[in-house]
Amino acid sequence: MATRGEFSSRIGFVLAAAGSAVGLGNIWGFPTQVATNGGAAFVLVYLLLAFVLAYPVLMAELIIGRSTRSNMVDALTKISGNVTGTLTGLWGCLTVSGILAFYAIVGGWMLSFFLDGIVRALGLNDLSPWITEFSTSRNILFCLCFMIMTAGIVLGGVKSGIEKWSVRLMPSLVVIILALIVYVSLQPGAGEGWAAYLLPDFSRVTDPDLLISAMGQAFFSMSLGVGTMLVYGSYVSKKENLPSIGMWVALVDIGVAIIAGMLIIPAMYVALNNGVEIFNADGALIDGDQLIFTVLPALFNTIGTVGIYVSIAFFALMVIASLTSSISMLEVPVAYLVENHKKKRSTAVWIMAAIIFVSSCTIILNFDALFVLVITATTEYSQPLLGLVLCIFAGWVWRRNAILEELKDGFAEAEHSVFWKIWPWYVKFVCPVVIFLMFTRSVL
């Protein structure tokens, strides 16, 4: 079998892993959660929980991945020494494939709105309605395009595919966000948005719903539980300091979420100033797909010709955010097929891309029944439970000495570090309890 891929640089890994973590949730979910949950007070709670909950689980995945140098199924099988690890790994591959099946549909929508801006800039306005209106044919076509783009990157492997494109896409994403922040901040109404985003309402900090929301955002925003970070960790050099590199991934992910808020919330208040409705029936800010595909396009339409170019830039940003996440998701089952079933990478990529595309088409053809159901089953139920199981593997199943030996590669003083004094018992006792409470609170 060919030699396993490996990230060629620290920055390549950090940008790829942060790209996996930086997805649509950071851009359309985090900002409105902040604005409706106490502004900067929510940001402070989120930052705290990102490091007391998400970072330890992220480290568990990275350590397991680099130690075993394996895909999720083989890695957990090696640690457990029995079928429990195998079944958990397969569960992770199935969950991440399910997430990608609906994510590819949404990525296709982003692609269609990006193309719509280009079409309108060229004066081909007659094409615009078909490109943007919800229809089965349009959904399938753009979902297919998105999956082909995702597969095309993963085909290149770790260094020539995932790393090469991550170090191009992630800086582009940040540059586009910053440019749009400057533009939007100069528009009438932006000041109210900045106030809603940044002014803290500390009376909300003890609200259980705020804490659950912040906890969920911190956990899910780092792509934890489904094996993406485990597989990326398996491609990290033994020379790297894992606690340090994991910290950088967390910081970049959190940073992008925060600057996304600096764009989205002021933009919503600019839209309000221009006569666009930004609140739903119960008075909360509109979020999710309605924000991205209704409120913001309406805003772009109110600012004249320049709005077309702002729309192109914004949806380019959304396509990039979608792609950096989708390539990490596709890599999880691809790595399993390559290493466990000895498939050529090209064969594995196209097999998995085809299976996931067929799954996406099934969802599209039964949209009302399946779309929300698949999202709920994978992200609200399966993903947190997988995170819980990974904590149990890292804290209870895997030998503590083996973990320490792995950390010492690239971090000789690991045994005497603050990280080692806290992390082993923390991931063993605290994380499973917190994740379990978060899960039960969210589903009951």
From TrEMBL:
Entries under InterPro entries matching the protein: Na/ntran_symport, SNS_sf, YocR/YhdH-like
Pfam family, one: SNF
SUPFAM superfamilies linked to this entry: SNF-like (SSF161070)
A GO cellular component entry from the record: membrane
Subcellular compartments: Membrane
CDD domains (UniProt xref): SLC6sbd_Tyt1-Like (cd10336)
Keywords attached to this entry: Membrane, Transmembrane, Transmembrane helix, Transport
Regions that span the bilayer: 12-31, 43-64, 85-106, 139-158, 170-190, 210-233, 245-271, 291-320, 349-375, 381-398, 418-439
Entries under PROSITE patterns matching the protein: NA_NEUROTRAN_SYMP_3
Protein topology in the membrane: Multi-pass membrane protein
Keyword Phosphoprotein: no
Keyword Transcription: no
Official protein name in the record: Transporter
